[in-house]
Predict the structure.
Amino acid sequence: MLIETDFEVGAPVDKVWKYFDDVPNLVPCVPGAELTELNGENFKGLVTSKVGPVTVKFGGEGEIVVRDATTRRLELNATGAETKGKGTAVMNLVAQLSPGGKGTKVKVRIDLTLSGAIAQFGRGMVADVLAVIMRAFAVAVEENIGRLERGEALAGAATAGGVGIAINAAKLALKRLAGRILGIRSWYE
């Protein structure tokens, strides 16, 4: 499934790009993610996600295939498998940074293939959960850029439990449904 989203970070694009270019700083900003190994452009890690009653933990590896400072484009490929279960995930992620909004606009395109228990959730639910995770990621990146400037220790993303993620994802689903009923395209595109 192809999911496209964007978010803003309240910092200049050069600072955000510098932060994106440092994988060990970036990974903790993703709720539930842990970097276990880094070797050049290759990395290994764990991702735990809980949506309502379902908790999945994936172990996997990835590679940064494009890191272009001129165009501020980052692309990575990752694969993973549930640590307990038969589910798998294959992802291609492209992030494009540009000046905009309150500092930096980040456009993200995720091509994601899921199998196993997590695949039971439809495209809409997966997109809504990813949107909630991306918001937490954006907040953590912005806060950590400020921490770096002040010489403080970096912090990870605020963790939202399964109920919190499910509630926020349900709000997005209801907004999408209401937009379709009311004919407000910006609510569901």
The longest strand covers residues 54-68. The chain has one domain: 2-121+132-158.
